[in-house]
Amino acid sequence: MPIRILPPAGAPRVLAAAQLSNSVGDGAYYVCSALYFTRVVGLSPTRIGLCLTVAWAVGSVAGVSWGAFADRRGPRGTAVLLALATSAAVVSFLFIRSFAPFLVATCLYATAQCGLAAARQALLAGLVAPASRTGVLAHLQSTLNAGLAVGAAVGGLALQYDTREAYLAVFALDGLCFLLCAVVLLRLPLVAGVPARKSDEPRLAVLRDRPYVVVTLLNAVLLLRMPLLSLAIPLWIVDRTDAPSWMVSALFVLNTLAVMLFQVRMARGVTGTDTASRAVRHSSLIMFVSCAVFALSAAGMPGWAAGAVLVVGAVLQVVAEMQQSAGSWQIGFVLAPAHQVGQYQGFFGTGVPVARTLGPLLLTSLLVMWGVPGWLLLGAVFLVAGFAMGPAVRWAERDRGREARSRTSDRPAAVIG
Are 357 and 219 a contacting pair, CB within 8 Å? Predict the structure, then answer.
């Protein structure tokens, strides 16, 4: 069966265009931001790390509130507002020359990014039928990877010049890309906000939904795979193996191309919570094997052999990544109440900033310092979280069933006469 690159026409294709526009800017930003703030602005790496940790912590909390706002006021307008806010935050980096303004701007950037992700999910839920959401999300993930790859190439040009003007051009490009994203989102139909069902309904009901909290925590653990490719594996290749250093770039390209080409196909079999839980479980098992293979690359073998082992580990990792992504998308959407998709997706999405902030410290300590035992322990953590997802999902479904029966019993009985 041929690989379909473009999502279906209509709202999915417009959402993909919006995703592509801002991911190109993000790709360039991610490549250049650290060097810009150290070399041009003059901030220390420690201060940059502190700012990013604080910012993503603030953003992950604020994303839940923005998701709830999107539920009530409408996700399209909220998404456009947050895309504009992200653009403003990026542009403000052009004028920052000290620590305090950098911290404020970074918090604004992370808050807008987390809120935008939640609002977009609510927008997708309002425009795409439930049976098609996982497939559309797979297309969006492929689009995201394509945009990041293009943006990274643009950022690479700025790194080649390594001048203040080149870095400023990258930040200006990122700001323009988010501005374009806002314009593209305006092409989507309006999705009406949904008022709260009960006057006494808590403002952030997701925080009281214990099964969903557990599912979100397990997903956050599984997302610790995110810093592997960008940080832990490059350090491992350089410090612990005899593989050539260019393998770092090769593995990144391999991952990006695989997701672009095969994420949609990998998501086709995920049609409900049972298949989603099975996909997550299988992904954790594959991830465990991948960790063991990466550990094997430090067994004192020649550089070419270590490189071949690393490629095998990377292939297993990207297969696990695509399966886990498809399963988690389905689980996160299906278990969210229809009138609170933005709020629930905002909370479910906190796994990404958690992985970005805690993952580097955990993974470098575990893998670079512990070596092979660290890889095996990390694989075991993935395995436990993946196998625990199924029972957690069934718990959430039972809880939803009890709530539905409770609402039915609370309705007044019909009067027959």
Answer: no
The answer to whether the pTM exceeds 0.90 is: no
The CA R_g of the chain, rounded to the nearest whole Å, is: 22
Instruction: Indicate the number of domains in the chain.
Output: 2
Q: Dihedral of CA 233/235/239/242: which sign?
A: positive
Q: Which amino acid, 22?
A: N
**Burial annotation 371-402 (CB, 10 A radius, 16+ → b, else e):** ebebbeebbebbbebbebbbebbeebeeebee
Specify the DSSP element, H or E, that contains 322: helix 303-334
SS3 for 202?
coil
How far is Cα 74 from Cα 64, in angstroms, rounded to an integer?
A: 15
Residue type, position 132, single letter: S
DSSP three-state, residue 186 = coil
Pair 162, 270 in one domain: no
- What is the rounded CA–CA span in Å between residue 181 and residue 164? 26
Could you tell me the residue range of the domain that residue 177 belongs to? Answer: 8-190
**Residue 394, both tokens:** 């069934």
* Per-residue pLDDT tens over the stretch 71-101: 988 999 999 999 999 999 999 999 988 889 9
